[in-house]
What we know:
Number of helices of chain B: 2
Largest sheet of chain B: 17 strands, mixed
CATH topology of the domain at 140-247 in chain A: Immunoglobulin-like
Strand content of chain A: over 45%
Number of domains of chain B: 1
Structural class of chain A: mainly beta
CATH architecture of chain B: Sandwich
Helix content of chain A: under 10%
Radius of gyration of chain B: 18 Å
CATH topology of chain B: Jelly Rolls
Shape of chain B: globular
Order of helices and strands of chain B: HEEEEEEEEEEEEEEEEEHEE
CATH class of chain B: Mainly Beta
Helix content of chain B: 10-25%
Oligomer: heterodimer
Number of helices of chain A: 5
Radius of gyration of chain A: 30 Å
Amino acid sequence: MRKEPEVFINHTKFFLVLFFLFGVGVQYNYAQISNYVSSVKVGDAKEKTPLAISADLFSSENISQIDIAFKTFGKNEYLKREMLLTGNTASVTIPADEIQPPYLEYYIILSLKDGTSQTYPLGVDHGVAPIQIPISAVSEKDKQILVLSPDAGEMLTQHDMLISISFVKAPDQVDISKTKIYLNDQDVSSFAVNAGDLLVISGDNFPSNLGFGSLLLKVEVYDKSGNIYHSISRSFQLVTEELAAQAGAQWKYYGSLRGESRNENYNSASTWYNNLGADFTGTVDQWRLNGSVYLTSEEKSNRQPYNRYSATVQNGDWLDLKFGDAFPRFPSLIMDGKRVRGFSGALNFGAFNIQTSFGETVRNVEGELLEKYTAANAPLGSNIISINQLKYPGYQYGKVNMGTYNRNVFVLRPSFGSGENFQFGLTYLHSKDDPGSIEFGARPQENLVFGSDLMFAFDDQNVMFTSQAAFSLVNKDISSGNLSDAQIDSVFGPNSTYSNVDPGTVKKYKDLISKFITVNQYLGPWNPQELSSFAGEAALSLNYFDNTLRTSYIYRGNDYQSFGQSFLRTDVKGINFIDRARFMDNKLFVSIGYESLNDNLQKTKIATTTFETISASVSYFPRTDFPNVTIGYNRYANNNGLVLADTLKNRNAMFAVDDITDRVSLAMSYDFIAGVRHSSSFSFTTSSRTDNSLAKANATFNMSSLNVTSYWTSQLMSLCGIVYSASEISGQPFNYLTITVGGKYRLLENKLQLSASLSPSFGDFERQALELVADYNVLANLNLVFQTRIFRIPGSATNSIIGLTTRLSI
Amino acid sequence: MKWKNLILAFTLPLLVGFISGGKSSAPSDTPVALVKKIVKDVKYKKENVSDWEAAKTGLPLKDGEEVKTGSKSLALILFTDGSGLLRVRENAILHIYGQKENQRMNKNTFVQKGLVGFDVKKQAENEEFKFTTPTVVASIRGTGGFLDYSDDSTFTMSLDSGDVALDFTGVGGGGGMLHSRHTVTINSRGQFYFRQQNDNDRNLSNSTRQTEVKKIKINTDSGDLEINYYGSENR
């Protein structure tokens, strides 16, 4: 009788494995095809933990900038951040406060040197679904099973080696004796000593064949029925006594040097790239120093900087000074995600804090004079500007390729309160183009923003209110400087255009405002009373009864602009409501969201469009041997009320917006043992857009992907993946299938790691991609990496990248 | 010494009595703490046993057991509920007490003498983390700093972060709150002085965080001699 459940479980497991391995081979996909991005790596996606995302590029040739657009569950608006381009990898870390269950959606925007752009996945702007990353909630089980030692990233010698797992807070259903402990996939459970609610492996009874370097500790905890209850993993370093003594000195330092040389053969053009990167970190007491340099042959004076430099000095939480390139974070309406080359720093005293940042955000890039004209024969055109007559005698105008002005920014934010229960801040931002920085350019600009922010919280932050507001002024052409008194007299006062306005009053205000920003006819907004350049938002969060409820309101006028925040959507206002509920002892998570936004706040458009988003998601994280499952539904409805009737006479019909997109997604992950350990994931997305506007851009999109990683031995790992996409956009079908097979093999006592992957695509998109990588650990701190990528597009071209990278750690 | 002995004589039995009398469940074999690291001479003693034994890395410490460090020695002690870390400096003696009820654990560390650096995480509503000395009981929610009970019965506690509620058990009685970046000193007569952390306090707090061994290698005709020690400048 007791056998029956086991048989059932085994059958269930068997069918699940079959389902994962074969059941999805019929349709589906995940359509991450791209001419530029070969793959995207995503870090451990856990609630309120910064999430690292990096994109490997087939080639960085032709790419000028890479941004990532992402949004959390229930939101309509994507937030955007620039990705750091180093070699053929673009990387970014999404801040912890944006990482919320059940999932994060993102896509990558590749800006190309010819001025066009492309998304990854391809066609997001035409209805293709973005990529979804399931975010696992902080599990109660993380608080029940504790790894007391080692700490994450800790450096230990064989003598000090201690692994200790505490079950003091574990529930009775956990069977401590069944716990499995792995070090780099080697089962070391037999070395553990059980001491009450502790499992301990200490230096004396440690296996001696582990070798030095990074070790991955994995702990699998089982319940009394033998089902896996929880799994924890943690990396740490096993080092020699000498290295530990050095690390233990009062001055601790470590660093790395990385050099790369690679050749890209792309569309018959062969290009060499050389990069050099160096990082250094030193600590003494509470002080932490960090330096970082990245130099690349892609740095050119006619582009924005590719090189990066930074030096940081920190002391605990109270001092943070950064010199060089930084991405300072101020209230998001004013500055967030913008690179500043200069100085950024903060002093946090608790009751009073001050944060500042100043430096260059845009480098000057000189334009080009294409043709010269006299005043008589100069044509009209946006690229026709006046030129220096002393330098070009006889000519007053020139046709130019516009350059880019040097732009600097200064931001200051004093704040009061530590931010634990209360904080009030005031922010001032001033940013200005330098008109003298280039010869061929037009319309240098200037920006001024004032803002305030407030947060207060009660009951251990279970009740939290946050708000921010900002007002901006922009001068869209400061080349002529401030208005002169004579110009004011000619426009205001008796016998002028505005005879009822006292020119003296105008001069008084001009003298006052010009201390902050250039005052002339290009200064705006002209309708501040309509809140056109005002932006504000407020949110209230409540966390009770296993429910996290957040409701917020946003308002952003159509003229609001901050040069510290390039990615803000303006001309929008509305509400957002999200509720995340936890059930069944944190095994089941249900999330619902509703957002309603509308534009046309200052009546600058023909009609007002309402953007409505309804989101729902159910996630199941069982403690038994069954896959984690997340099912999501989103409905995006956009409508501006304009009708299509009688389109020949109804000129407004062409501006009609009336579309609805329904999207359903399913994501599953499952670790199972079938001979050896396998880790699998499966995702499926289907979306359908009905477009009732004149464009009739209807779209359907189905994609699914399956990946299985198998750990055959501690030396051999394999990866199999299949992606299928079937879409139809405006009546054009586009279907393809991509299969990926690959593996990694370690040899020469783990000093050499060989990896290979082959990834052919069939159907409407045909390409074969092959990647070979050899990573040789020459010395304990010196690695050589040889990488070859070949990708062939039948009937078009065969492109290749061959690169050698050297990494030296000190 | 007279005052110190008198206070010790009254307080220790009271404390032990309180801890043992308060146990609602039978003493389990649940360790309260664990020795994470040892430098040089660290000993421990089981409850109701008179002999000290050498401690080893990974040693579980149960309710009522004692830890003693020798000259230039150090012990790092972790609480098994993940609530905190103690850095026990040289020539210190402390007693570890703890009661587990359901999945909660109340901890009390009696510092008989010596310097102890601590990092204690925020405690749950119904959990306690206390330091006790012959003159003071300090209730901690979540904080970092150091505590010193010197041979002349002077108690010093300094906080880098968080708050601590203090109950003075000396002849004067009373109590108070010690806040972040502040220090309190209580002499053997129960007189107490609060002040902002000064350079000495900050240096001492930083030094308690130095937990690494220094080494000297001496080349001799008969081979290399390696001396491991815990530098005195760290104290």
